[in-house]
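Give me the 3D structure for FAD-binding oxidoreductase.
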Amino acid sequence: MNHKPLKLIEDLETAVAPARVLTDSDSLQQYGRDWTRFHTPAPLAIVLPSSVEEVQAVVRFARENQIGLVPSGGRTGLSASAVATNGEIVVAFDRMKKISNFNPIDRTVVCEPGVITEQLQQFAEEKDLFYPVDFASSGSSQIGGNIATNAGGIKVIRYGMTRDWVVGLKVVTGTGELLELNGGLVKNNTGYDLRQLFIGGEGTLGFIVEATMKLTRPPENLTALMLGAEDMNGVMSILKAFQQKVDLTAFEFFSEQALSRVVEHSQVQRPFDTPTPFYALLEFENTSEAISDTVMELFEHCMEQGWVLDGVMSQSISQLQNLWACREFISETITRWTPYKNDISVVVSKVPEFLAEIDNVVNREYPEFEIIWFGHIGDGNLHLNILKPDSLSTEEFLQKCNHVSKWVFEIVQEYVGSISAEHGVGLLKKDYLTYTRSEAEIDLMRGIKKVFDPDGIMNPGKIFD
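Predicted structure for FAD-binding oxidoreductase (465 residues):
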């Protein structure tokens, strides 16, 4: 596509108002990428719409001029889904951040796409309710982006993914058409549920401009238990033992390498003196003496079996937060080493041998790489983070990690797992999509995209070419 940038920008300003369009170099860099740092942002312009009508105007302009559009939320994505590398217009939803239409009977609330996750959580708390989808980036991630990537996080074992909390959507398709999907209904068996296509669609079918979100009752007296284990088989035995008798709200794991980095580079203290190869972080509602007794009995049982080497249980909100900091500070802490991230999953029962096989391959082929493991073990989601050695340039490191990914994804395919459990496909994973999806599935997805986005302008090049 050959464009005259200055004329296009002038026409764009006419379509949506000059104050909504940014073209300075700082803005192009800031809005042109997400948390990934493996692609150079090169957008044509940034547009910050403040209404559905302005979003529609941008889409119609882009369609008329055959320019790609890239959605931008909190820019916390980890698969380069929100990266603009080829002269696209970035549509950033920072101005669309209203919460409205709270319904205490239905326990629903309407959010514009720019609502920050933490903003919705605080709103729910003010209404004595709870929005359970939570992760380390909740202070900056936006609801629209969460929905577009079907974000998961730390509470999936109890509350499920973002998909489970979206009861209605308004979306603008690649033709500029506004669709209202499901209308907040709990039951609606009237053919295809198009809402589900946009959840996890990474903006490739259209842009989410409004979401009706479901809330629930708040958990009571949340308590965390941090346990140190010798190996992953021990972690899985702990999970099995506790799940049989306690309703867990979270079950996370991380390695000693992950904890040591957090302790070294933050104010977080070790939960107990004994270093162990792996740690399990359990959370539950401690609402009765009977539950407390059961938890202590299970803890003692796990110690007797040799699954647990040491452990500690929170006795206050501050202690609960301190234990969670050991897990939630990992991503932020290791960012300085430009980590190459693999977000993979298998069924929960296969996790130990799956992790061991991947660990062996990476350590054998690249012994100089430091591997940081953590993840949502209760739902089979593992985060493999490879830290960049100082001796390698980013380009050399990425090239080597691409080899690692191929080996890792071959193992994922062998275990019938997913190459992207919760981060999406974006640019980073699209070359490996066939390890999880068949060619027939990918062809059908391309056909679906063509229906909603006939000109291919909505987040082009993401998921597949």
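The mean pLDDT is 95. Let me know if you want a second pass.
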